[in-house]
């Protein structure tokens, strides 16, 4: 009986000792407990039970559509990196914070003018549904939503799941544009498109209707028309190309002055009058194909490329255009010619004549829609006329003479008014191109393209 009591007492003491150790924590290993907020924001790893002093590595991996923000221990941030290293001194309760990604949806309108409006742009979280809508204005019609140059929907209302930054363009077209595009879809060349448009213009009753259709033709030729032509001419003029052309004169003859311009003019004359003189068959077919489709050559930095032949366009459509549109087309051809040659390659006298023509067009056709475009060109031409070469320290006597001649011959023009004041500035600073000159240009609302 006494032995039994001793055993019972010993067992009780042992149980109490174990209980005491459990309650007080003596002898336990510290743990690292992990939690993700929000729970679906990502996965976490590296938690568990460890020995004191052990090097610990915990990692947070964001789920699709989320990004990692920080690690916290209670209210305290302990790391801004997804991978967090530390030496364990006691138990830790760490929280990995994630937040959902947000993206911007940017719907815009393709083409100038008040053709329509779009809605639905703004900030969206990853996976959220976006709905953008296009609303035509006036006589325009919605044609499609485009992204990255590709048509992605033909419906005005387009819904999609947002998974990244998104830029979309709503394309609105007028009936005339839709009709021109239908001609292209039938396989017509740009020249054939021009001829078909001319036939339709001939059936219209008013100049306003004819000018309107012609404007859409010009827009197409400057944009889509260039990409639809069957022959795309672009080549660099070097000694080998000069030999392939088989034209008179040595390559060296064309490396000075207006050599490339003369080459362009000679090429176009040959294509029009005697294409067989071009010895290289592939080049001959390419150039004559370009010509037969209504294009000509322009020069730029020693290269030749195809561009709409506005002079032929003017001749073909002359009887159908209003006087204002006819004047614009001729002026456009001259402006293009000046830009392709380079402002500094045309003489001050040529520059002066072009400025007066542009000045006259603007004063005589202020209500024409094309006046906005021409005004921008005028300001550029004028700035380049005042400072033909910004890298030359002074204005030449030849340029001064051209300024005075223009003021004397066209005293009532807008250009003459600017030149009178400019000549006074140049007299004050001995013809130097300095800050006083640049200040004068800024005061006129002009900015030099160079």
Portion in strands:
15-25%
**Sheet with the most strands: spatial strand order:** 3-1-8-5-6
Query: Which stretches are poorly predicted, pLDDT < 50 over at least 5 residues?
Result: 18-25, 228-232
Task: Classify the secondary structure makeup into a structural class.
Answer: alpha+beta
DSSP summary, beta strand count: 19
Estimate percent helicity.
40-55%
Mean pLDDT: 83
Distance between the termini: 115 Å
Shape: elongated
Question: Would you summarize the structure shown here?
Answer:
Helices cover 44% and strands 25% of the residues. With 450 residues, the chain is an alpha+beta fold. The termini are far apart.
Please describe the topology of this protein.
Blueprint: H1 2-24, E1 31-37, E2 42-45, E3 48-49, E4 55-62, E5 66-73, E6 76-79, E7 83-87, E8 92-100, E9 102-110, E10 116-119, E11 122-125, E12 129-136, E13 141-147, E14 150-153, E15 157-161, E16 166-173, H2 175-185, H3 190-203, H4 207-222, H5 224-228, E17 234-236, H6 239-245, H7 259-273, H8 281-292, E18 295-300, E19 303-308, H9 310-317, H10 323-341, H11 348-364, H12 371-386, H13 397-409, H14 414-428, H15 435-443
Parallel strand pairs: 1-8, 9-16
Antiparallel strand pairs: 1-3, 2-4, 4-7, 5-6, 5-8, 9-11, 10-12, 12-15, 13-14, 13-16, 17-19, 18-19
Helix pairs in contact: 3-4, 9-10, 10-11, 11-12, 11-13, 13-14
